[in-house]
Structures are given as C-alpha cells and as structure tokens.
Amino acid sequence: MNTSIEPGAPTRLTSQAMAFVLAGGRGSRLEELTDRRAKPAVHFGGKSRIIDFPLSNALNSGIRKMAIATQYKAHSLIRHMQRGWGFFRAERNEYLDILPASQRVEEGKWYLGTADAVTQNIDIVDDYGVKYVIVLAGDHVYKMDYEVMLRQHVETGADVTVGCLTVPRHEATAFGVMHIDERDRIVDFLEKPADPPGTPSDPDVALASMGIYVFDWDFLRGLLLDDMNDAESSHDFGHDLIPLLVSRGAAYAHRFSESCVMSGLETSPYWRDVGTIDSFWQANIDLTEFVPPLDLYDQKWPIWTYAEHTPPAKFIHDEEDRRGQAIQSLISGDTIISGSDVHNSLLFTGNRVHSYSTLDHVVALPYAEVGRHAQLSRCVIDSRVRIPNHLVIGQDPEEDAKWFRRTAKGVTLITQDMLDRRAAALD
Asked: Can you provide one Gene Ontology molecular function annotated for this UniProt record (predicted)?
C-alpha cells in the first residue's frame, strides 16, 4: 500500500466520510449471468460477490457509514447485504442503509441516473452528519485505501476528486479520459476519445476514470439540487456533473497507483471491470495463478463477505483413471471432487464434480453439478446448473455456439435454461 498512514489511526479523514455505493445497474454485457441478479450481486472469487470489494475497501479504510442504492433485480443483492454486512451498530455511530428506488421523491420516478440516485436520498445523507461523500461503483474488483484519495481532495481544495487508472494511451479509447495539467488538475474530460491525451509526465499513458468521486457533502448537496432542476440534464455523474466541474477548473485527478493496496505479492495495481463474460472469466481464472495479480490472502486488507457455514472441500477416489484431484485451482467449501480431474479452475461453494469428468479453465458458480464423463474447458457455469453426463464444451466452437453463449474469445457461458432447451431439442 503506497501510503504512510497507519490503518486505524484516529486522524483518518474517513471517520468523517460516508461511502455512497451505486449498485442499481443490470450489467447487460454479462448476458444471462444478470438475468436474475444485478451485476454487483454476481459471485466472484470463490466465495464473494463483486460488491464486497468496494464495501471492503470502505470498511478497511475506516468508513463506518455506507449507503447502497439498488434498482434492477435487487433481491439477491439485498439478501447478501443482510446476511454478510449486518454487523454495523447504530450505537457505535455505524450505519449501512440499503436504498432501493422507491419513488420517495415523486410517484413513478425511479432512479434516473447515478447522480439522481444520490439526489433522491439527500435527506438520508443529511442524517449521517458527514463532511465528505465518496461515490463508488458497486461492480469493480480492486483493493484501495480511500483515505489517501480523501487526503488529496482536502489538500487541493478540489470541488471533486476523480479516481483514475493509468492505462496505455491505445487502451484508453474505451474509457472516459481525464486530460490533466502538471498539478493533476483536470482541464478536459473526454468520453471514449479516438486519440486520448497523454499525461504531462508520460505522453504514452492516459488517465481513465474509475467512477470513484470524492466531494465535500455541503458542496455536492447544492450541486445535486441544481442538477435536479435542470431539464436538460441526464442526472448522471459522468455525463453531467463531472464535465461541469471540469469546466469550472476545480476538478482534480487521483491516481489509483497512489492508493492501491498491495500485500507485496502483487507486482502492479490491479483493477478490473468484470462487466463482460470474457473479463469475468479471466479475472476469476487470474486468481488461480501461482502468484495471482490480486492477493485475496492478504489478512491486512481482507475482503469481507457472507461467510457460509460449510464442510471442507473433499477429494475422493484414487484409481488410475478415476482420481479426484485439482491442480492450480481454487476449490471452495462443500465441494466434492469425485474421481475427476480439475485444472486451472475456480469452483465456488457446493460444487459436485462426478467421476471421469475433466475441467480445464472452468469457473463454476455455487452449487453447480458436473455429470460423469463431462469434458469442459474455458467456460463459466452459472449457479445451480446441472451439467449432464458426457457433455463436451470447448472442443467444437460451432456446436458450443449452437446451444450456449460463446464469446468471440472462445469462452462459453452455460445456464440451466440453455441446457433445458438443448435437452428438449435433442429428445
């Protein structure tokens, strides 16, 4: 962690801040994985949900007041928050509020944009009595100490401080890019530019927005009320408020590399938007590497989540062609590898992998079951899916695409509905 601030120090500005987490989006690029759940509620890393990362960052940074704005198919997300994040105690001045879009301001008015999600809950934020608000996306995977960003915000006197990734210029065309001066003041904001501007210190890299914003609450409150009355606004931070503040000359960029938390095993700052099937699969598979780019074993910066009470993982059978084993893989609790061969895969809680099957570079979400003699590679298996005996995935692209969702990069998503349609067609 690139900071000299001692964790838990009483002078941390995060004790005067709250985290407002935007978790209402579907995440449609995850295709069928978000048919029944919002993107922040999608499982990740063997036992967590995506939203656990920004919430854990906030908690580990010293923030004890949080609000989560939900909207799209929020049941599994809300249930996860109740089960895994219900330890906040009001008598200790700790709060975690779940804020579904509930027409609190006007009948028929749901959250119209990211800024409107905060605007509709101004009275709740007022009740927190905080000095600073950190606006977070609920659907990114990373480890970050928000205290460092907050201190920069105070020292510069910025109206807003925007968290930014340092990326090669040729990769920045897919992001909102911050053009900065020598003091890291943002002089222009460009949405997915064809020719991204470099930075003053290195013209070959650009600063891409992470969707993390720090504000003084009194200032943000007034800004939101003005935006609410602007009929031309889409009421969105990235499209409306941030460009407005950039034009006023009081927006500053904060580099993720300055506040990224690294245990010593990571070699570079790690941040992922796991918003596509390919990126979701890759980020999970990354964790199976000998030295993973994201260290989930860092006890100094734990990723908090709902801890299910499960029995240990189990490996059974030890015959020449029927040996239960997993190599360079992450295997979660209550999983049984029965006479099958698992390589470079991540299996979530409660998986059952039956005899003579092989799994290679597979991400299997909770309580999936793989039948005998199945051969699976480069695929994502949705939760509670029952893979039939002898199913082969990853060897015939045309056959895979006929029944399942296969990406351009060759990753196959398997859901129970897809399997049921295939079974009906083959009957």
From this structure: glucose-1-phosphate adenylyltransferase activity
pTM greater than 0.90:
yes
Checking if the pLDDT of 269 tops 90, the result is yes
Instruction: Classify strands 176-180 and 186-191 as parallel, antiparallel or unpaired.
Output: antiparallel
Flag whether 258 is marked binding.
no
Please tell me the least confidently modeled range out of 25-39, 154-168, 303-317, 367-381.
25-39
Q: Look up residue 105 and give its two tokens.
A: 């301001």
CA 219/CA 241 separation, integer angstroms: 12
**What pLDDT was estimated at residue 106?**
56
Alpha-carbon 7 to chain mean position: 23
List, in sequence order, the alpha helices (H) in 297-409: 397-403
At residue 383, the pLDDT reads 97
Q: Is 209 annotated as a binding residue?
A: yes
Residue 325: strand pairing partners: 341
- Residue 186 pLDDT > 80, yes or no? yes
Domain extent listing, the chain: 13-288, 314-426
* 40: its two tokens: 């922040």
Position 250 pLDDT exceeds 80: yes
- Superfamily for domain range 314-426: Hexapeptide repeat proteins (2.160.10.10)
Token pair for residue 224?
């939101």
Same fold flag, 13-288 and 314-426 = no
176 annotated ligand binder: yes
Q: What is the 3-state secondary structure (H, E, C) of 143-202?
A: CECHHHHHHHHHHHCCCEEEEEEEEEHHHHHHCEEEEECCCCEEEEEEECCCCCCCCCCC
Alpha-carbon torsion, ordered 99, 100, 102, 103, to 10 deg = 70
Tell me whether residue 374 is exposed, middle or buried, using C-beta atoms within 10 angstroms of its C-beta: 0 to 12, 13 to 18, 19 or more.
buried
Does residue 383 have a known ligand-binding role? no
Strands 160-168 and 251-255: parallel
Task: Give the pLDDT confidence score for residue 8 in this predicted structure.
Answer: 44
pLDDT greater than 80 at residue 263: yes
Whether the CB-CB separation of 49 and 80 falls below 8 Å is answered with yes
Q: What is the rounded CA–CA span in Å between residue 24 and residue 322?
A: 45
The answer to whether 148 touches 212, Cβ cutoff 8 Å, is: no
What element of type H or E holds 217? Answer: helix 217-228
Residue 72, annotated as binding a ligand: no
DSSP structure string for 254-266: EEHHHHB---SS-
Fold of the domain built from segment(s) 13-288: Spore Coat Polysaccharide Biosynthesis Protein SpsA; Chain A (3.90.550)
Angstrom distance (rounded) from CA 351 to CA 342: 12
